[in-house]
Amino acid sequence: MVAALRRTPPVLMIVSLAVGLAACWSTGTLFGVLAPLSALFLNARSYWLLAVWIGLLIAFAASALAALFYPGAIREAALSLGALVAVAACIGLLLVPAPLRRGNHSAVPRRPEPGKPEGFGPVPAHGAIHPDDRAAIAHAAAYAFWTGVPQVTGYRLRQPDGSYHWTELRAEPGYGVSVDVDAMVSRPDDRWSVAESLGTTMEAVKAAKVIESLHGKAWAFDAMGRFTYVTPAAQVAIDMALEDLNRRLGEREFIDGGEAGWMRGVHPDDVDRAASTLRHCLKTGEPWNIEYRMLRATGQYVWHRISARPTRDDDGQITGWFGTSIDIDVYKKTEAALRAREQHLEQLIDTVPAMIWSMTGAGHPVYLNRRMMEVTGATTETVTAPDGSLTLKRMIHPDFLEQAERTFARSVTTGEPYAIKYLQHRADGTYRWTETRAEALRDEAGQIIRWYGVSVDIHDLITTQTELHLRKQELTRLVDLVPSFLWRLTPTGAPNFFNRRFIDFLGLDEGSLEQPQTEQYAAALKAAVHPDDAARVWAGLKDCLSSGRPFAMRYRLRRHDGVYRWMDGRAEPLLDEDGSIIQWHGLSHDVDDQLRVEEALRESERSLRQLVETLPALIYCAAPNGEPIYRSEKLREFLGFGLGDKDEEGKTRLTGTLDAIIHPDDLPDVKERYAHSLATGSPYAMKHRLRRADGDYRWVETRTAAMRNAEGEVIQWNGICFEIEDQVRAQEALTLTQERLARAAQAASLAELSASIAHEVNQPLAAVVANSHACQRWLTSDPPNLERAQKTVERIIRDANSAADVVGRVRALFRQTVEARSFWQLDTILHEARDLMLEEATRRRIRIEIDVEPGLPPLALDHIQIQQVLVNLIRNGLEAMEPTQRGALHIRSMRAGDLIRTEVRDTGAGISALEKVFEPFFSTKSNGMGMGLAISRTIIESHGGRLWAEDNQPSGATFIFTLPAEAKADHDR
Amino acid sequence: MIVDDTIVFIVDDDEALREALGELLEANGVRSALFQSAGDYIGADKPDLPACLILDVELPDINGLELQRQIAREDHPPIVFITGHGDIPSSVRAIKHGAVDFLTKPFSDTALMAAIGSAIAQDRETRAKRAEVALLRQRYQELSPREREVLPLVVSGLLNKQAAAELGISEVTLQIHRRNVMQKMAASSLADLVRIAERLAIPIQHSRRMGGI
Hints:
- The complex is a heterodimer of chains A (973) and B (213).
- Chain A has 973 residues and is α+β, with helices and mostly antiparallel strands.
- Chain A contains 28 helices and 29 strands.
- The relative contact order of chain B is 0.10.
C-alpha cells in the first residue's frame, strides 16, 4: 500500500482525497471515500492489491454480519459500508488490469542465453516489432551475441493501441554498463515538430535526410545555428521540439553568445565547450566535431558524438549545416569502465609488492611494472638488447648471470616455467637476493604469446636463511667439535641425542642423525658403561631423574675399540615454566688422561711423601717467616712432639720450638743465623746440638734453603737435618789427627826446605872442599905446583862466595814481598777467617763473635796475608782458651783516628811475655813452631800497621793490630 | 905424574865442582874427562881404557840413577855416585845396581880417590874377563853347526850313545864331533869344556837321566 501510495502521483492523491472529502461532507455518505481508494487501486501492485482485496472482503463480510445481527442505525451503517466495499471492489476490479499490464514493459536487456538464439530474452516478440525493423534487430542481436560488442538498435515497437513507437535497444555483454531501455520508451505525449520553412537550409535538410536514411538520425540548422530539421525520433528522445531547440533564452542570439534552447539539453560541464565550438564553426565554416553529453527525455545524460558540415551555395556562402549525432554513451562508459579497470589493474600491478614484467613469446621484454623500475632502476630499454631480446647484464649479479641466461634461454626454447634465485642489481647499486618466476601464456595452438614473470625480493629471507643455516651449522659444529660428549635425555632417561664425538666414541652407526635413535642410543649406552660402574651409574641417574637434582658422576665408558675410559658425566634438567622437566642435557668429559695424571701425581706424591717420611733424615718445612709448618715422621719421632705442641703464650711457634730443641749454647748462634737467612733469603747451614725426645742433645747438621716462586719470592723454607753425632765425634778425632798430621807435614816440609837449602849450599861447598884438597895436593907435591895451587885457591874463594850467595838467596826467599793489594772490606775478611776457623771453634765449643763498627772504609791490603794473620790470631786465641771451655772469642774492629783497629780477645790464660811472643821460634806450645806471630807482625808491618798484644783483666789476652785507613784516601784520589 | 892407562869420567852439571874434581884428580895424577850432562857423556867418543864414572845424581837432563839403569846392559865402567843430599833409598838403589860408591857432597879426597881406585881395579878385572870370553866366543863361532849341537849335549853329561841317539847319528860320528869340539874350543879336558860352556852361557839342556828313560 505504501508503495502504491508512493507510486501514485501526489496531485492525483490530493485531488482524489479532496473530491472524496467534499463528497463525504456534502452528501453525508461514505461513498466519497471511494475516490482515494480507487486512486490507490490504480497504482497498487501485486501483494498489496491482494491485501487490499482481502481487506475489502473482510470489511464486506463484517458489514454483512453487522447488518444481520445489529438492528437500527448500526445495520444501516453496516449495509451502506458493505455496499461501499462492494462498489469499491467492483471499481477496483475494473481498474486493476491496466497497471498490471504496464508492468510487462519493464524489461532489463540481458545477454541472450546460449542455446536459445531465437529467444533473445527481453527483446520484444516479433509481433511487437515493426516488420521493417525485424531484420536489423535480429542482425544486431546476433552480432551482439557472437562478438560481445554492445549494440544499440532503434526500432518501432507496436503499442497496445496498434500504433508504433520508436524504441531503442542496447544489447551489451554484462560489463556492468546498462541503460534502462524503459526510459527510452516513447510516450503518448511525445513531442516533435517540423519547421514550417526550411529557408536556406534546403540543401542541408536534404543532406540530413540522406544521413537520416543511413543512420536513422540527422539534423540541419541554418548559418545562425537555428535548427530547421531534426529527426523526429531524436526530438522525442531528447524531448525537445524544434521550437524548444531554437528558443532564445537570453537577449542575444546564440551566434552572438546568447543561450539557445538546445543548450539546455547539454550537460552543464559540456555546454560551454559545445556552444563555443559551434559558434566558432558557424563563423569560420570549419566542420563541427564534438562529443558531449545530451540530456535524454528520461532525464539521463548520454554521450553523443556530433558532427556537422556546412552546405554552401555557389558563392561559397554557407547556406546551412547538416549533421548527425551518434550515441557513444556505451562506448564512452565502456571505455571509462575499461580505463578504470585498467587503471585499477595497473594500480594493482603497481602496488602489488612484487616486480612484475612480461615479454613476448620470443623473449623480448615488453613491460616492467613501476615497482620493478623503481626498485631496480631498470627500464624496458635497459633490459632490451639492440636486437630486441632480453639482456640481463644490468639486472643480475655477474656470478649468476650465466646461470640466469642459461635458464632463461632454456625456458624460452622449451616453454617451461622457470624460477631462479639470484642477486639482483638495485637502483642504489647494491645487489639483493631476488626470486624470479615466469610462466608462459599460450594461445589455442599452444604457441607462447607472452611470458609473465614476477620477481620477489627474498633478500631478507635468504639472508636470514643463510644466517640461520650458518648458525645451525655453527651450532652443530660446536656441538660436534666441542671436545666433550654432549647428550640429551628425555625426562624418563631415554637418550635422544648424542653429539658426533660421542657417536664416534661409542662407535655407533652413522644412521640418520635427524631422527632420534633412542633405542639404539640406550642400548649402546647400557653396553658401554663399565660393569663395575653400571649399578652405581644407573642408580644415580635414576635418583636424579626422579628428584630433578643435577647428575654428576665419574664412571668408565667403553670406547669403540674396547678400551674403558674414565668419564666425568654431568647432566642438568631443562625446566619449563611450571618447573617440570622437559629434557636432561648432559655432558661427559673424558677425564681418563687427567685421572691417570692425577693418579700418577697422587702416586708420585705418596711415594715422595713416603720417601720424605722414610728418609733417614729429619725433614721440615717452614713458612717464609720461619714458622714451622711441616715435620717429617722421623723428626717428630726424634723430637717427641709435633708442630703445635710447643706453642706458648708470648712466643712465636718458631721461638718456642727453637728454645725447646736447640742446645742453649748453640741457641744464640742458631737464632742469629736463622734470622739472617730469613731476612736475606740465603741458604742456611749449621751444625748444632738438637734435643732428642729422651733429653739427650745430639749433634745435627741443619741445612735450609728457600723455595721460591717464579717471581723469586720465598714461599717456603725446606730444611733437612742429619744427625751427625757420630760424624762430629769422628770429625773431632779426625781433626785432631789432621792437626797432628799437619804439624808433621809442617815438620816434613821444613826438612825438605832445609834439604833444599843444604843442596844449594853443599854444591859450592863441595867445590870448595875439592879445590882445597887439590890445592893441598899442589902445595904438597914435590916440587909444589904453586901456580896450580894459586888457581885452585882463587876457585875456592869464588866457590865460597857462591855459597854465601846461596844463603843470601834463601834469606831473600823468606822475605815478604809487597804484592798487588786491592781494596777490601775488613769485615768480609773477618767473616772469612771466622768461617775458616768455625769448625775448630765448634769442636772446642767456643763461639766466635764479630763486632764491626759500621761504615768502615775499604782498605788496600793483601787479602790472603791479612786473612792469614787473622786465622793465626784466632787459632792462638782458641788454643789459649782450650782449658776454660765454652767461652767466646770476640773480634772487634773499629776506627781509631787514621787507623782501623782490630782486636782479637780471648779468655785464655793470658801471656806472660808480651813482646817475646813475636820473636821467631818462640812458642809456648809444645808443638808450636814459634813462627806464626813473627810472620803476622811482619805482614802487618808491611801493610804499614802495628801488631801487639795486651793482657786482659781478669784473664786472657788481646792481640791488636792496626791498619792505616788513609789508603782509602789515596785510592779515592 | 899422570897415569895414562886409566881414565875417570866426571858428569856433573855444576861447573865449579866439575872443575874442582878435575883439578883434584889431576893433582892426584889421574886423567879425567868432564861432561856437564848425561847426554854429553853418552854421545862422547870415549877411550877404551880401564875407567871409572863419577856421576852426579841430580843432572839436568836425566837422573843419574836413571842413567845407571840405561847403561846397565852395556859394558860400562863402574860408577861412583856423588850427590848434594844423599838419601838412603837412592844410595841403596845405586849400590844394588852395581855402583861402586855413593858419596855425599862435600866429600874428602881420600874417600873419592879410594872409590876411584876401587872402581878402576874392578873395571880392569871386568875388561880381562870380557877379553877371555870374547876369545872363547870366537872359538865357538868356528864350530860347525853339528858341532854346536854336540857341544851342549856333551857338556850336559850325556853318554856318547845317548847324545848320538839324541841327534840321530852314530856314536862313532859323535865321537869325531866331540873330538873336534874339544880341539876347536882348546879344551884340555871335558871339565875344561864344561867350564868354557859355562863361560859362554851355553845352557845345559839335557840330563843323563832324561836320555835313559
